[in-house]
Amino acid sequence: MIDNLFLLAIGAFGWGLSLTTYRLFARKYDWPMGSLHADLPAIPILVGLFALVMGLLFAAARGVDYGGWIIVVGGLLLAIFWTGFLRVGSQISLVLAPLAATLLLMGWLPSILGYERPKWAYSRPGDLIKREPDSVPARPDL
Asked: What pTM, to 2 d.p., does this model score?
């Protein structure tokens, strides 16, 4: 079974951290910055903090015994790779970080409120595809 919320938490934490710290590294090492990072740095920082906090809250809710520390370490490694090696990859973090954080929240919130979790949050992709063996037409012999 694939734990999609776990992967989304790593992504939200890593991309959020990369987004909040990119401007610091870009100014120090003279890396290129997008117009949003250069002109309105508060927006990427706030978006990054939202994603970072969602990933960190999910890791804290999971706890150490159930992989919370792996989310933090995996997110740190993702942020180091994303910021250090992909430098301008931080621009796509403006889309990926809030997307991962929002999907994480959508999958996690029902279990907090006592509702049933959505199937996509804990199922394998193949399990979500409805297959009916009788509906497949027979292949004619050639």
From this structure: 0.83
Which residues contact residue 88 at a Cβ distance below 8 angstroms, ignoring those fewer than 6 apart? 31, 32, 34
pLDDT in tens, the chain (142 residues): 578 999 999 999 999 999 999 999 999 998 888 888 889 999 999 999 999 999 999 999 999 998 899 999 999 999 999 998 887 667 889 999 999 999 999 999 988 888 887 877 777 666 666 666 555 555 665 5
Q: Are 12 and 51 in contact (CB under 8 A)?
A: yes
Helices (H) and strands (E) in the chain, counts: 6, 0
Cα dist from 83 to 39, 71, 96, 136, whole Å: 19, 18, 14, 47
C-alpha span between 142 and 140 (Å, rounded): 6
One-letter amino acid for residue 76 of the chain: L
For residue 94, give both structure tokens.
């403006």
